Amino acid sequence: xxxxxxxxxxxxxxxxxxxxxxxxxxxxxxxxxxxxxxxxxxxxxxxxxxxxxxxxxxxxxxxxxxxxxxxxxxxxxxxxxxxxxxxxxxxxxxxxxxxxxxxxxxxxxxxxx
Amino acid sequence: xxxxxxxxxxxxxxxxxxxxxxxxxxxxxxxxxxxxxxxxxxxxxxxxxxxxxxxxxxxxxxxxxxxxxxxxxxxxxxxxxxxxxxxxxxxxxxxxxxxxxxxxxxxxxx
Lengths: 113, 110
Fold this sequence. Notes:
The structure holds two protein chains of two kinds. By secondary structure, chain A is mainly β. Chain A is 0% helix and 55% strand. The mean pLDDT of chain A is 91. Chain B has strands spanning 4-6, 11-14, 19-25, 32-38, 45-50, 55-57, 60-65, 70-75, 84-91, 98-100, 104-109. The model of chain B has no long low-confidence stretch (mean pLDDT 90).
């Protein structure tokens, strides 16, 4: 199947700093990528849909100024958590469509101290 | 009401057992359905798509009941390696963003 690379796998940062997470489609072009967040023992919640060359579409309740998404090329989307706080600690995971199937990056565990 | 609902479990079963999970969805316009498997702190991986006619892949059988708006997953001859969380996933179409259930945890015991 298609390969989606996400890094870093985990990051620990101080409150108030910004963290950038990268998501790359390695062997296919992804015009659309999705960013999910998962808290412990909960389901994956869609945060935003990232569209190459245009603005991302955010789900209700997700602050666009806090979670900056850039999809500058067909193989790369980035999510920047700005001014992170402890409540932003979560598992962030990206995904992309290839041939009608959704493939996931390996996820990023963010811990904000 | 959640868009996709699953029994969180855990389902604790012995090796070799047959176990079934159900999942209900609220949007009757949902177009496609999947079961994903997620191991702890790992990304979800597609287990199988679910078709109206029902489909089977080895020890796994998935079925869709559109009238009652539920899908099911049956696992026969459970293996220790089947221990994971099984996510029911629904695609409403359009933007093709998937909606995930909260998952059902399966623990297969020796």
